[in-house]
Write a structure and sequence with these properties.
This protein is 67% helix and 0% strand. By secondary structure, it is mainly alpha-helical.
């Protein structure tokens, strides 16, 4: 088990909880931007494109599970969350719209709200990983996303398996932890990233969101 970093050590490197959360947000925003920028061009197979998209963003979400929990605990404003997720949302909406036109995805829910629904599903699955309730490399999450989009379960599983076998896009290490130099210099001792620092820190948990 990694050593716990004392709360006072955290705040030597960050001017309080807000600064640490914002540093995590800046890292995540850059990681999402890089992941989307490195995505392959759309193909005629919208189901495969959605599978690739989830397999591409899952490692980023997995790396920043703490930030997702903080967003749910209202440490980030809704506007800031929207700013972070807009590139990924735009890409997912385009994929879903293309699949709806092809007749591959369900049309009961329009592409934009369907994107938000699948996003919420993925965030919940990542939260289960964070809490130790589940473990996944993105395969089951991608299958679940396809099913939510209207693909039959057997077809969804086969599609994700095919994408895996033919080479799903890998997220470069710099994508998962890319930070402006100023933020890198603020990071914790022994080159810990803000995310790793938060995970090890003796910092009070975020408040629960009110119903």
């Amino acid at each position: 088990m990694p050593p716990v970093v004392a709360r006072r050590t955290v705040y030597v490197h960050f001017a309080g909880r807000t600064a640490l959360v914002e540093c995590l947000a800046a890292e995540a925003a850059e990681a999402i931007r890089r992941a989307v920028a490195g995505a392959p061009a759309p193909t005629p197979d919208a189901a495969a494109d959605l599978a690739r998209f989830v397999l591409m963003v899952w490692p980023v979400g997995d790396h920043y599970r703490t930030l997702i929990r903080l967003a749910r605990g209202q440490d980030l404003t809704p506007a800031r969350v929207d700013e972070l997720l807009t590139p990924a949302r735009d890409m997912a909406t385009r994929v879903l719209a293309h699949g709806c036109r092809q007749g591959v995805f369900q049309t009961t829910v329009p592409p934009d709200p369907l994107t938000r629904a699948i996003e919420a599903q993925l965030a919940t699955l990542l939260d289960c990983v964070e809490r130790g309730l589940w473990s996944d490399d993105g395969t089951s999450a991608a299958t679940a996303a396809l099913i939510a989009a209207g693909v039959a379960p057997d077809t969804a599983a086969a599609k994700v398996d095919h994408v895996r076998k033919t080479g799903s896009p890998r997220v470069p290490s710099e994508t998962r932890a890319s930070t402006p130099l100023a933020l890198t210099q603020m990071s914790a001792p022994n080159s810990l990233s803000p995310e790793a620092l938060w995970r090890r820190a003796d910092v009070p948990p975020p408040p629960r969101a009110r119903p």
